[in-house]
Amino acid sequence: MKTIRSFMSYGLLILLSLAIAAPLILLIFNSFKTESEFQANPFGLPTTWTFTNIASAWVQGNYAHAYLNTFIVAAVTIVVVLFSSGLGAYALATLRFKWSTSFMAYLLFTMMVPSGMFLVPIFFMWQRFHLMNTLVGLVIVYCGIFMAFNVFLIRSYFVNIPMEIRESGLVDGASEFSVFFRIFVPMSKPVFFTAALILVVWTWNEFFYANALLLNQNIKTVSLSYLAFTGRFTQNWTLISAGGLISILPILILYLFLQRRFIQGILEGSLK
């Protein structure tokens, strides 16, 4: 009976995996086909693998600028969010102050409210402060959106570090900042690494605010560049597939090589 249940469970997982992987595999295959071959066989392997679609999509989609803009936004967001949320998580995990519980409730509330509700006030404020069409304005929004989740994620790791270590550091004359940077951060590298991976994926895939705040073609991120690219080549599915592959390739590589570290960091932060 257990064997049958195990077989059914594995069979279901295999079917789900195939259902998830099939569109990605089809996207890869169509990226390397000619247009005539795609029309003749849209669901099969390419008979002749051609890289002209990738090269053409890279140039016509202006992906060089899009990659650079997205890397800048992701890098600055990661540094600011990890630094700020790390300090916030340290304070909530180690310090006992009057409004700590209320502040955690407020952070939880911000995570429950749909971020799209703030678009209209942000749009008018950004116009007034001349932050529209700037990567700085987008980074500020991302930092605000992604901060609360990372505070809770890092705090869940900090609370499992023995407080005697912190107290020993303070007794030896270290300040709270020294304890944080020299003790807590080195001991919490897995959760910081996981938080950085999550931020990379979020900033790379985020579309809603980027589409509203970045109107200049030269500062568009990868997701926006792909939208503009598909609008120009609505009938050329091989080029659209190539543009889609270029758009997801960094995240795909990141996930394939670092998925174990990602899952390990989540588990250690929640179960340690």
TrEMBL record:
Supply the PROSITE patterns for this chain. Answer: ABC_TM1 (PS50928)
SUPFAM superfamilies in UniProt: MetI-like
| Stretches assigned to the ABC transmembrane type-1 domain | 67-258
Q: Which UniProt keywords apply?
A: Cell membrane, Membrane, Transmembrane, Transmembrane helix, Transport
Keyword Kinase carried by entry: no
| Top-level taxon in the UniProt lineage | Bacteria
- Where's it found, cell-wise? Cell membrane
Mind telling me which residue stretches traverse the membrane in this protein?
A: 7-29, 71-93, 105-126, 138-158, 179-204, 237-258
Q: Which family does it belong to?
A: Belongs to the binding-protein-dependent transport system permease family.
Q: What is this protein called?
A: Carbohydrate ABC transporter permease
